[in-house]
Amino acid sequence: MSWLGKLVGGAFGFMLGGPLGAIFGASVGHQFDTGMDGMAGESFNPGDQQRVQMAFFTATFAVMGHVAKADGRVSNEEIGLAKRVMDNMELNPELREAAVQLFQQGKQADFPLTDVLRQFRVECHRRTHLVRIFVEIQIQAAFADGVYDAKEEKLLLEICAQLGVSRFEYQVIKGQVQAQHRFQQSGEQFPPKSGLSKLEDAYAVLGIPAAAADADVKKAYRRLMSQHHPDKLVAKGLPEEMMQMAKQKTQQIRKAYETIRETRGF
After folding, report:
1. How far apart are CA 263 and CA 47, in angstroms?
2. HEC readout, the chain
3. pLDDT in tens, 8-46
4. What are phi and psi of 28, to 5 degrees?
């Protein structure tokens, strides 16, 4: 079990501090009457990586709830996405309940989004790959109900601005998320999606134009695989529970690359 998987009680929120610590503590502290009983002898002084893991976990589910409520209602699809993320993380019962509570807190009108994002950015210490993964998850949350509402778009642009993600990069990530969704579904549809449309989505998954040179296709593939390598992301602070999500992402990237390679014959 990872360090994050051992978290119990509001004391851990105190260790993180700031608005993220307060939100995390409120989400888990009420669940335990015994606090840290039975865990004596273990060291819970979080190092840099552990702080980032806690911050990422807390911000991910709380902001996801805020994005889901941006259009005024939380759809069953948006709730389903949050549950799928929890399923992929294989959270223990306590952390799953904490994630649900974080999602609920994010839906509140007084949710301190600016303060949460400011601390999250500080805790990440310029780990741009983690910030990108975080933004991808939030965009997926906005797309979950099949409608990309103008209010959700405005909120996501605000989130990106707070995290230092440019409008251009946001558009690139948004396009990749849309393409990934279509590309994944194309393999599940019957009759299958047309070869041309699937190929177009494959290029979009890699974030390159169809006219890109073979060398640029390979370069984009290697860059994305490096950015989303599960072990590298965990080393930089991605919670170990999210490794499965990172693995799924690399599988999509590899499948898109293979689709392009088969078409080009290299």
Report:
1. 47
2. CCCHHHCCCCHHHHHHCHHHHHHHHHHHHHHCCCCCCCCCCCCCCCCHHHHHHHHHHHHHHHHHHHHHCCCCCCCHHHHHHHHHHHHHHCCCHHHHHHHHHHHHHHCCCCCCHHHHHHHHHHHHCCCHHHHHHHHHHHHHHHHCCCCCCHHHHHHHHHHHHHHCCCHHHHHHHHHHHHHHHHHHHHCCCCCCCCHHHHHHHHHHHHCCCCCCCHHHHHHHHHHHHHHCCHHHHHHCCCCHHHHHHHHHHHHHHHHHHHHHHHHHCC
3. 444 455 566 788 888 877 777 644 433 434 333 344 445
4. -115, -25
Q: Closest Cα partner for 132 from 28, 37, 249, 218?
A: 249
Cis peptide bond prior to 239, omega within 30° of 0: no
CA 106 – CA 103 distance, rounded (Å): 5
| pLDDT tens digits, one per residue of 106-163 | 999 899 999 999 999 998 887 888 898 899 889 988 887 777 788 889 999 999 999 9
Average pLDDT over residues 205-215: 90
Distance (Å, whole) CA 2 – CA 191: 42
Could you tell me if 249 and 181 are in contact, meaning their C-beta atoms sit under 8 angstroms apart?
Answer: no
CA distances from 164 to 23, 33, 120, 143, 177 (A): 23, 40, 12, 22, 19
